[in-house]
Amino acid sequence: MAILSLRNLTYAYQDGATQRYVLSDISYDFEPGRFYAILGNSGSGKTTLLSLMSALDAPRSGEVLYQGTDIQKLGYEGFRRNHVSIVFQSYNLIPWLTATENVLVAMDITDNKLPADQRAVATNLLSYLGIDATRAERRVPQLSGGEQQRVAIARALATNVDLILADEPTGNLDETSSEEIVQIFKALAHEHDKCVVVVTHAAEVANEADEVLNLSKGVLGEVTGGAAVAAAVAPGDPMVAAAAAPGTPAFAAPSGPAVAAPGGPVSAAPAVPSTAAPAASDSDSEREALV
């Protein structure tokens, strides 16, 4: 069964006397355990689509269904608080808090049932994502971009939800950090049955996804094959085409010291604690916007 379904989704805005359509009659099903990439040129409506999927905005017509129920009936605030988490390109962490405190803020917002020792869950999640105890107690500006994005993903896993949406999550990262973040998303989908949907311009990210979609002229369609991915990412760009061409090596698994899985053996990719899952908000203003 699909965890999230789009049904005849349409979005438009008023430009003077003209109504301009960004999305036109989009229907698609997103399933748990799958990693999706949505491609499209700048201005194609990718972020608008993600905003509708995460209940940050409302469609002009059509429905967004969560496990078969219209999210308007669930309530947009309740849906954001309890069923979906968002990972942003710019991390959207609270700069005066530590990594651990950023994760705890998200856990404080949700209505989902969480363990009494929330700090232990936050620490375990950060450890799973490669943030050790010392760095977990640093304020986030003292962390690298890749580390801050890992904190943002930990926050997105802290409220025990199964739907994770990410808007250009590798856009501000170097190549190595980007590769590692993509591998984390793949593991969350394949090993922990999350539905992960990533909006991206990167052919390298799309090549790692289970399903690649392209948004063009308001229409969402499936993309198959490396050459098609290249065309969707940057039509006519030979460098991008070469990067996305068949035979391009897949991202390697993240390297680095093994970390201990909560309640499990030491391994390079420990299991996510069953008590943990996604979160959404950050700063006080963003908490108001998202919740």
Give the tally of β-strands.
12
CATH architecture: 3-Layer(aba) Sandwich
* Shape field: globular
Termini Cα gap: 27 Å
User: Assembly state here?
Assistant: single chain
Rg, Cα atoms, Å: 19 Å
Helicity range = 25-40%
Q: In order across it, which strands form the biggest sheet?
A: 6-7-8-3-9-10
Low-confidence stretches: 236-271, 273-291
- The topology string of helices and strands comes to EEEHEEHHEHHHHEHEHEEHHEEH
> Could you tell me the strand content as a percent range?
15-25%
Largest sheet: 6 strands, mixed
Structural class: alpha/beta
Which CATH class applies here? Alpha Beta
Mean pLDDT: 82
- Tell me the number of structural domains: 1
Number of helices: 12
CATH fold node name:
Rossmann fold
CATH superfamily: P-loop containing nucleotide triphosphate hydrolases
List keywords for this structure.
291 residues, alpha/beta, Rossmann fold, six-stranded mixed β-sheet, four-stranded antiparallel β-sheet, 12 helices, 35% helix, globular, disordered C terminus
Report on the architecture of this protein.
This protein is an alpha/beta fold and 291 residues long. It has one domain (30-55, 76-219, 247-290): P-loop containing nucleotide triphosphate hydrolases (Rossmann fold, 3-Layer(aba) Sandwich). It contains twelve helices and twelve strands. It has helices spanning 46-53, 71-74, 76-82, 99-109, 118-128, 133-136, 145-156, 175-192, 203-206, 226-233, 238-244, 284-290; strands at residues 4-15, 18-30, 35-39, 61-66, 69-70, 84-87, 163-167, 195-199, 211-216, 219-223, 259-260, 266-267. The strands form three sheets. It has a six-stranded mixed beta sheet, with helices on both faces. The protein has a four-stranded antiparallel beta sheet with strand order 2-1-4-5. Strands 11-12 form a two-stranded antiparallel ribbon. A hairpin with a 2-residue loop joins strand 9 and strand 10. Helix 4 packs across helix 5 (118-128).
